[in-house]
Specification:
By secondary structure, the protein is mainly beta. The protein has helices at about 1-30, 105-110, 185-190, 285-295; strands at about 60-65, 70-75, 80, 85, 90-100, 120-125, 130, 140-145, 150-155, 165-170, 175-180, 190-195, 200, 210-215, 220-225, 235-240, 245-250, 260-265, 270-275, 295-300, 305-310, 320-330, 330-335, 345-350, 355-360, 360-365, 375, 380-385, 400-405. Strands 1, 2, 26, 27, 28 and 29 form a six-stranded antiparallel beta sheet that branches. The chain is globular and about 55 Å long.
């Protein structure tokens, strides 16, 4: 009998341990997450108001290393908010940012309002952060994977938010020239703003409507046919560059959102998914299906129309948090904002060997299709960071910074 009792006690103990592990599996794997960097105000000098990047570069980059991955932090004051990042090559990323101190009070902010302007910065890993001093004040910024740059000096938009003209600096990055675009009517003039090439282009044949997405040069077009609620559930189509050849893809415009379409050089393909999920006409039903299957469908689409299906796992981000998915060379990143005080917001990595929270804190998502840009190899992610939601306003647990997450500084991360 005593032996039986001992066996039962051991079995119960094992059950408790397993149960505890099951409940804490996620948190146990997230203990290495990188949060805020502590800066000593007595020894750290805030960046100069107009940094040049010459001798005496005021930016002090901090490297935070983990097992097989690392984070580079620009230091306090350099914050781009929702502005996008554009990788010029594997080691240089360009972005528009405001360079100012972290205001401690409303009075500080009021006294310094207008003293700090936004500029175009280039972060060259290993060399530092510099500012392009040759540019006047500008608005929009777009840099394509092929290096073509379009910098808005004066942009004109219609009531739907579609750019219809303006004055720009255009050309290869660093060699732009001023160019005026007359006001045009997209439907009448059959033109389309291509977000992948940073150009306004004339559309071929009969191709035109609100949800036609022009791809990179030579890759053709994706037709989402979702201008109206009556058009939901239509099959997404790929058109060749001439507009004469068409191929139906194995998903509909209810399965993916056209605003989420992004091109990833490391894969040579476009990644499509429903970045607004759970949403649509029945968000509860979509959330239920996602949770039960642990799969929100995503598709790779190659030039020519070849596709490959993948799954985005279910998690707390599906319960009301703002989130986005970013495929990388080391697995799938989930970036989530979860302002419920739980500390779960940040960047998570999922692959065959790992479920890790890499970044803990407030990661500014930016726009869905270019707010967080990945380097050509699929290894480095640039983003705006703050310890919490208040850090991008006035008072928080620390200053806002710009960061680069490098996933490829060693073997694939393991959980």
């Amino acid at each position: 009998m005593p032996r039986n009792i001992a066996t039962i006690l051991i079995f119960c103990l094992i059950s408790l341990i397993v149960s505890a592990c099951d409940e804490g599996e996620t948190r146990d794997n997230y203990v290495g997450a990188v949060g805020a960097v502590d800066y000593d105000p007595a020894t750290y000098t805030y960046p100069a108001k107009v940094p040049t990047g010459d001798k005496g570069n005021p930016f002090t980059v901090t490297e935070i290393r983990r097992d097989n991955w690392r984070v580079l932090d620009s230091g306090p004051g350099l914050f781009s908010g929702s502005k996008p990042y554009f990788w010029l090559d594997e080691n240089r990323v360009a972005f528009k940012a405001l360079n100012s101190p972290h205001y401690k009070t409303v009075e500080d902010r009021r006294n310094n309002n207008g003293n700090y302007a936004a500029h175009l910065y280039i972060w060259d890993i290993g060399k530092g952060i510099t500012r392009r001093a040759d540019l006047p004040a500008f608005g929009s910024l777009c840099i394509s994977h092929s290096g073509y740059s379009r910098i808005g000096l004066k942009s004109l938009y219609d009531s739907e938010g579609e750019m219809i003209g303006g004055r720009f600096l255009e050309g290869l990055f660093g060699q732009e020239r001023k160019k005026d675009h007359p006001v045009y009517e997209p439907l009448k003039n059959r033109v389309h703003r291509n977000i992948f090439e940073c150009k306004t282009e004339k559309l071929p044949g009969d191709l035109w409507h609100w949800k036609l997405v022009g791809l990179r040069e030579g890759h053709g077009y994706l037709d989402f046919d979702s201008c109206c609620s009556d058009n939901r559930g239509r099959v997404v189509r790929w058109h060749d560059p001439s507009g004469k050849r068409m191929l139906e893809l194995p998903f509909t415009n209810e399965d993916v959102e056209w605003v989420c379409a992004r091109f990833y050089p490391f894969k040579g393909a476009y990644y499509l998914y429903d970045c607004l999920a759970p949403g649509g006409p029945n968000p509860k039903k979509q959330r239920k299906i996602w949770k039960e299957s642990n799969c929100l469908p995503a598709w790779w689409v190659w030039p020519g129309g070849r596709t490959e299906k993948e799954c985005i796992p279910y998690g707390f981000w599906a319960e009301g948090a703002s989130w986005t998915a970013i495929p990388t060379a080391k697995g799938l990143l989930i970036v989530t904002l979860n302002n419920d005080g739980s500390g779960r917001e940040g960047i998570y990595l999922f692959n065959s060997t790992a479920k890790l929270q890499l970044i803990s804190g407030w990661v500014k998502l930016g726009s869905k299709n270019n707010g967080l840009n990945l380097s050509p190899s699929g290894c480095k992610l640039a983003f705006s960071y703050g310890p919490d939601i208040n850090s991008q306003k006035i008072v928080g647990r620390g200053a806002s910074t710009t960061r680069i997450l490098d996933l490829c500084s060693g073997s694939p991360p393991k959980g």
